[in-house]
Design a protein that fits this description.
Blueprint: E1 6-10, E2 13-17, H1 27-31, H2 51-58, E3 66-70, E4 79-87, E5 93-101
Antiparallel strand pairs: 1-2, 2-3, 4-5
The structure holds iron/sulfur cluster.
Iron/sulfur cluster binds next to helix 1.
Length: 103
Amino acid sequence: MEDIIKEYSKDDVTVVWQPKKCIHSANCWRGLPKAFNPKEKPWITLDNVSSEEIMEQVMKCPSGALSIKSESENKSESVKTDTEIVIIKNGPLQIKRKFVYQT
Ligand code: SF4
């Protein structure tokens, strides 16, 4: 069975959605309901959010089902990512990624 991959773009940011990877944590629609609404089709709309809001929220997706394809990612001198791993007692690892903008 072929994996489904969908892309949603705004300005220079593209959100990549891989539903097979989703673990239904609800981080996305609880964290940024203006962009992520599982009751709507398409469930991702980027019209009313900034590129920074989108990128920050996507980085909180624990499964990698959401990711960013950004033109600025190609400019390694302008954006880098920081990763923090939190061990939750009796639970899974929580991985936080965030973009660090360099001027
Ligand atoms: S944050 Fe990621 S894993 Fe959680 S519901 Fe959204 S897409 Fe799925």
